[in-house]
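Side project, low priority. Logging it here so it doesn't get lost.
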Amino acid sequence: MKPVEKIKAPIRKEMDLFESKFKDAMRSKVPLLNRVMDYIIHRKGKQMRPMFVFLTAKMVSNGDFDERTYRGAAIIELIHTATLVHDDVVDDSNRRRGFFSINALWKNKIAVLVGDFLLSKGVLLSVDHEDFDILKLISTAVREMSEGELLQIEKARRLDITESVYYDIIRQKTASLIASCTAIGATSVGADKDTIEQMRRFGETIGLAFQIKDDLFDYTDDKIGKPTGIDIKEQKMTLPLIYALNNASDKEKKWLINSVKNHNKDKKRVKEVIQFVKDTGGIEYTQNRMKSYQQKALDILENYPTSEYKTALIDMLNYVVDRKI
């Protein structure tokens, strides 16, 4: 059994039902929109975010949840899909998960409008059922994701990201959405404030580990979803590179910054940067930081009794850290 299928096993029935509910939530009276929505549905990913919602809800409520949890998962998936569609326009990206992106097939104008439609669907799904607590959680995540992206763009121009600023960026850009999944899972079953906050921190910690793992892919020789060195080519300041810069001599620092700023398309120079990062211990340092977040997340789960849902969340956390893509 594949790792994701094993994680999904305790909520298989709920995930199957969710798929049909999610399709309904995406329906429109406009034929063009429905064609785009069908395309999105058929190229869906692993659906990790709804899984986080369901497993958290089940763990904190001893296995119970109702329509509110399904709505919470649908809202997350609608908003997440909207941000991906908009991201592909912003990045001028023609592919996502091995398929053509919406903007590649239908051009930017339609892609932006589709993203707006999905955002409004998510908001209305909350408002129509007066799920204002859930709406607040997801709206906060969207605001933080936008701020994180803009902060990264601002800092990348000067390549002056410190480690603390790096954590601010990934906390907002990546971890905030996973934090909203686990917080919404707990909120949807009426958990108390302390439990909701604990689950929010659990999701945030997984999100930090997830992004740090993504950074490490830039320095791996394995066949993965993105080419080695792509972050350097895009002038993204990842944790291994920040560590290398912080531990380089003035001369080495100048060479590194010049390489990333002015020679990021030179394959030989990019390889030299990758080797320098490896030689200065950037990979080991980053792996240790990722493992420390993994342990923090495990420590939070210690507060909950053993159940198949808790076990699945532990498996999910380990999958995030051990994944090959």
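Brief comment: Residues 160 and 237 are 9 Å apart (CA to CA).
Revisit when time allows.
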